[in-house]
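> call design_seq(struct)
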C-alpha cells in the first residue's frame, strides 16, 4: 500500500535481552515461527518507504535477518534517544516523516501505525499511547484541556494525581525528520541512569511551542518482551490473532486454544483441525482437509480432501496429494504421496515418491540413509507394500506391484510383479506346547 506521506521508520533493535538469559539478540527471539523483528518489518513495509534498523555491535545474524533494509550500529547502549540518533546519517536530510518503533513490538498493526502517521500530518509530533488494565510503572501522558500532550512524566517522578492518569506512554513517536533529529541532538542524559531517553523529545517539542498529540492504541498491540515470560505472552497474543484469522477464513479449529500456527500457515476453506495440532513454518493446506489430533506439520503441502493423523508428522519437503491418507504414527520427510495414496499406520517414509492409489502397510520404512548419503525410493501407482517392509534405497517398486509382508527389498521390483524377500518359514510338527509343563511363576 502506498504510504500516506513520504515516511521512514527507525526500528530500535540493539537490545541484548539480558533478562532472557540468551545468546540471541532480543529482536531475534521467535514469535509464531520467525524472529519478532520480522513481524514488525513486514508491517512497516506496508507503510514506510525506508526502514533503518539500529543494531548492537557484533550482531551479524540480526543484520542478515533484516536485509535488505539498512542497519546502523549503536556501539554503546546509552538509551533509546541515543539509539534513534544513530540513524541520523541516513535520515537527517530525509524529506518526510520519521517514526521510531521497537523491535520487540511484533503485535503492532498496520492500521495503528498508519493512524500515527496520519495524526502526525496534522500536528508537529505524534506518539502512541495506551490505557493498560494495570498502568503499573508506565510513564504517564499528561494532557491539557484540549487533549494535547504537555509532557510525559515517569512513574517515579509522578505525583499521586499524575499516577492516577490512565493514559500511558508506549514510546513510539513520529515527527518530521529535521525536527526529530534536532530534538534528539538536544536530549541530555542528566538522569539516574545517565541515558538519553527518546521520550524527552516531547518536552523539547512543547518548549518549542509545537503541538504534540497522543494517538491511542490497544495495550495488546504495544506489548513488548524483556523476559521469557513476556515473550510467552507475545506468543499467546500472536497465536490468538492467527487462530482468529484462520477461522474467519473458513477453517474449523475444534479446540482453538490447543492449535499452534506459524506466521505463514495457510489453511483453506472447510479445513478441520483437531485438538493439539502444531504447524511449523511453511505449511499450506488446501480446502476440505482434515487434520486430526496431535499431528505436527512443517514445511509441507497438503492437497484438498486429504486426511492427516491422528499423531502424524509431516516434515519439510513433503507433499500429500488429493484425497491421500496419512495415519497414526506415520512420519513423512521429503515425501510425495500422489492422489489417493494411503499410509495409515506406524510407518516412516523419507525421500520417497508414492504413486496414485498405492497402499503402504503398517510398519513400512524407507531405509534412505547409508551413513553418508540420502537416497530415494520410488513406488509406482497402484502398488501394495505389505506390513513390516523395509525398502532399502535407492530402489524402485513398479506400478501395481505387490511386496509381501516382512520383506527387505534391496532390488527394483518390476511393474505388476510380486516380491517376497524374507526367510522361509520352517514348521516343526509336534514341537508346540503339547505334553510340556510350564515353569511355575
Amino acid at each position: 500500500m502506498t504510504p500516506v506521506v513520504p515516511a521512514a521508520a527507525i526500528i530500535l533493535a540493539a537490545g541484548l535481552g539480558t533478562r532472557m538469559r540468551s545468546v540471541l539478540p532480543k529482536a531475534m527471539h521467535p514469535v509464531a515461527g520467525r524472529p519478532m523483528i520480522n513481524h514488525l518489518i513486514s508491517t512497516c513495509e506496508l507503510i514506510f518507504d525506508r526502514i533503518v534498523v539500529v543494531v548492537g555491535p557484533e550482531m551479524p545474524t540480526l543484520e542478515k535477518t533484516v536485509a535488505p533494509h539498512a542497519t546502523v550500529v549503536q556501539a554503546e547502549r546509552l538509551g533509546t534517544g541515543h539509539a534513534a540518533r544513530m540513524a541520523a546519517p541516513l535520515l537527517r536530510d530525509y524529506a518526510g516523516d520519521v517514526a521510531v518503533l521497537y523491535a520487540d513490538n511484533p503485535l503492532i498493526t498496520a492500521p495503528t501505525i498508519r493512524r500515527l502517521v496520519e495524526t502526525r500530518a496534522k500536528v508537529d509530533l505524534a506518539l502512541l499511547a495506551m490505557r493498560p488494565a494495570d498502568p503499573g510503572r508506565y510513564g504517564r501522558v499528561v494532557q491539557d484541556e484540549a487533549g494535547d500532550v504537555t509532557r510525559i512524566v515517569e512513574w517515579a517522578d509522578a505525583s499521586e494525581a499524575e499516577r492516577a492518569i490512565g493514559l500511558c506512554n508506549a514510546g513510539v513517536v513520529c515527527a518530521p525528520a529535521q525536527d526529530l533529529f534536532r530534538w534528539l541532538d538536544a536530549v541530555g542524559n542528566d538522569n539516574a541512569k545517565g541515558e538519553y531517553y527518546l521520550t524527552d523529545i516531547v518536552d523539547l517539542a512543547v518548549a518549542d511551542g509545537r503541538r504534540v498529540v497522543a494517538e491511542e492504541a490497544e495495550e495488546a498491540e504495544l506489548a513488548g518482551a524483556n523476559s521469557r515470560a513476556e515473550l510467552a505472552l507475545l506468543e499467546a497474543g500472536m497465536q490468538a490473532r492467527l487462530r482468529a484469522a484462520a477461522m474467519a477464513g473458513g477453517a474449523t479449529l475444534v479446540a482453538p486454544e490447543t492449535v499452534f500456527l506459524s506466521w505463514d500457515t495457510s489453511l483453506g476453506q472447510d479445513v478441520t483441525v483437531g485438538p493439539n495440532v502444531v504447524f511449523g513454518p511453511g505449511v499450506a493446506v488446501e480446502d476440505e482437509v482434515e487434520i486430526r489430533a496431535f499431528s505436527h506439520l512443517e514445511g509441507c503441502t497438503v492437497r484438498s480432501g486429504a486426511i492427516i493423523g491422528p499423531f502424524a508428522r509431516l516434515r519439510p519437503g513433503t507433499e500429500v496429494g488429493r484425497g491421500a491418507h496419512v495415519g497414526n504414527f506415520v512420519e513423512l520427510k521429503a515425501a510425495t504421496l500422489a492422489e489417493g495414496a494411503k499410509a495409515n499406520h506406524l510407518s516412516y517414509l523419507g525421500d520417497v515418491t508414492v504413486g496414485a492409489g498405492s497402499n503402504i502397510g503398517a510398519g513400512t520404512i524407507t531405509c534412505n540413509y547409508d551413513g553418508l548419503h540420502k537416497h530415494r525410493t520410488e513406488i509406482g501407482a497402484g502398488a501394495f507394500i505389505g506390513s513390516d517392509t523395509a525398502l532399502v534405497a535407492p530402489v524402485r517398486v513398479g506400478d501395481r506391484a505387490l511386496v509381501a509382508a516382512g520383506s527387505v527389498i534391496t532390488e527394483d521390483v518390476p511393474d505388476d510383479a510380486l516380491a517376497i524377500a524374507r526367510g522361509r518359514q520352517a514348521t516343526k510338527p509336534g514341537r508346540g506346547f503339547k505334553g510340556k509343563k510350564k515353569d511355575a511363576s
